[in-house]
Design brief:
Two copies of one chain form a homodimer. The first copy, chain A, is of the alpha/beta class. Chain A is built from twelve helices and twelve strands. Chain B binds a DNA duplex (16 and 16 nucleotides) through helix 2 and helix 4.
Chain lengths: 340, 340
DNA sequence: TTGAAAGCGCTAACAC
DNA sequence: GTGTTAGCGCTTTCAA
């Protein structure tokens, strides 16, 4: 039998109310009484029934995260770090984190519906925003607290943390152009991902400002996995006039592209330049180390979580739309242009 | 105002009891009545208050997972896939998944204490078991349902799913020996990880059976990250008589070791053989593709979750100690011995 | 087949 | 400073 405040009340000969207030450190309880109660509680091994507390307070002290997955082998180092950022922050606030995994689509939306109508969580975190994001529309319509990692198309009237991908890609464009590259290809994810759009814009527009055109057949679409980076790079390298630089829109695809180039016997950083985006820990230890745009994923996770919990708690928030400036990390997967 | 069964009862002119039973599909309710109630519920947009249900039933319908992390950059592709396996299975059972991230140690144990004494979850999943695993001792002592991915030292009287790492490493040993390798090094994680112990045993014992000795200074300790694989490999390659094969105990460290070898100008698979363990998706797309032992992480996650939920639900379980036979995947990071 | 009533463990008006 | 009382929304005896 677990011990309840009623048991404590009986033991110390006080009412449950007093016990409750003492345990919650209300200041209208006699310090002496408070101590008696607390001692008794400790002695009896009392710990509150969280289910009862939550039910009573209509609060779950839990935030939710629904990870969009593709296929069964969902293996993205990006997410584990993001989760760590959220999880550790949540723990500081004594919040729990509920995680679901769903492929984008109907089932995913259903998970959102369940989460909010069952009030399983007090707030939600959205990742990998899309141009028209039905998740966000839904949460706004239902007036449910959420913070997203990423923005959407159109007016943005919600809290988010995002990296300035446009700027990040401008750095890449500047860099490659400076290195003499003109035949530049890219591998993007499907462009309804908002970050894909920003990254593409940043790259294309800046290149054009610099007088270089991003050719249509140099634009390939992948799905963020290493495999697709490999496959698209193979196609690019088979072209009669292959690119001298490949800009992958995330590190995983960049790794795949590197493999493809190496399979062709090319020396990366010399014969061809390849860049990534994200700077996952692995990027520093690939062969060769990857030139990429750094994204502080852990900190972003922490910030998103912080904003959300403050929101849920009705704490004041100074800034609820955070745009971070990324940084280009030049490593040896890139270098001066060399026409093959 | 959210709608409750009381509201429905009022509307249809029946008691809350009947409404409750109808909604839960009890068969002692007149089918006609049942339909009326269900229609009303749907019409009014009723959805049960999960908090109340849970409180009442003393069940959370939630399973917990506390991920052991090291340092802030916790980026292990292994875990995202494992989480997906658990999450998708949990969803089928309509269970939620609570995830915490803690560095091993005091804080971690505290998280376990909180989880179980607050009854935040109905059951827990343990990952990366250690030789003497205080988490497992604790859960057993408290008679709390759990299933682990991995075993411990000594008598194992709890449910687990594990891969037969001993066997997996025997495959590696056989293979390398057959390829002519005699100077074989390995990079293990700290050996209080149970899987490290098994993998080490499998490698060492089999090699000895084959007449090859695993030399003491060829045994390096890493921390499962790419970085440490790199660093330890650098040391190995600097030795007067470097190994002709490096057996990394997970893929991430193998990748790091590959980088180190490549930095030295070695051609992997020719000048030196490097093998991993896990077969994360990336292993097939590294350069060169990694020879490794396949571990069906997604399925393991799914199985662990399945066992745990069955246990929590008191459903019959045919086999609660599952040992899977791994498979060696030979790719091009390894080949015949070549003395440098 | 249906309803009345109790209670899960906790918090919070309100009164004393 | 402390106690009385009600109630959160639901399930579940038990009786009708």
């Amino acid at each position: 039998m677990t011990v309840t405040i009623k048991d404590i009340a009986k033991k110390v000969g006080l009412s449950v109310t007093t016990v409750s207030r003492a345990l919650n450190d209300f200041d209208d309880v006699n310090p002496a009484t408070k101590e008696i109660i607390k001692n008794a509680a400790a002695e009896m091994g009392y710990s509150p029934n969280i289910l009862a507390q939550r039910f009573q307070k209509k609060r779950t002290d839990t935030i939710g995260l629904i990870l969009p997955t593709f296929g069964p082998r969902f293996s993205d180092p990006f997410f584990s770090e993001f989760i760590a950022g959220i999880g550790n922050t949540a723990a500081q606030y004594k919040f729990d984190m509920l995680v679901s995994t769903r492929a984008p689509g109907a089932e995913e939306m259903q998970a959102y519906v369940q989460m909010i109508q069952g009030r399983r969580v007090d707030g939600l975190i959205i990742v990998r925003t899309r141009k028209e994001d039905s998740r966000i529309t839904f949460l706004k319509d239902n007036n449910f607290p959420f913070v997203s990692f990423g923005r959407t198309e159109g007016k943005i009237d919600f809290s988010f943390v995002d990296e300035d991908s446009v700027y990040g890609m401008q750095l890449v464009a500047n860099y490659l152009h400076e290195m003499g590259h003109r035949r530049i290809a890219c591998i993007t994810p499907p462009d309804d991902f908002m970050f894909a759009k920003f990254r593409f814009e940043g790259l294309k527009d800046r290149l054009e400002q610099l007088g270089t055109h991003l050719e249509q057949n140099y634009i390939r679409m992948g799905d963020l996995t290493q495999r697709s980076g490999y496959e698209e790079a193979v196609k690019l390298l088979k072209m009669p006039e292959p690119p001298t630089a490949i800009v992958a829109f995330n590190d995983l695809m960049a790794f795949g592209a590197m493999s493809a180039a190496q399979d062709k016997g090319l020396v990366i950083g010399k014969d061809i330049s390849i860049t990534g985006f994200d700077d996952i820990p692995m990027a520093a230890y690939s062969h060769p180390p990857l030139t990429t745009v750094h994204q502080p994923i852990y900190q972003i996770g922490a910030k998103v979580c912080d904003l959300l919990i403050k929101k849920v708690n009705n704490q004041p928030i100074q800034e609820d739309q955070v745009l971070l400036r990324p940084e280009l990390i030049v490593r040896s997967s890139s270098g001066p242009e060399k026409l093959v």
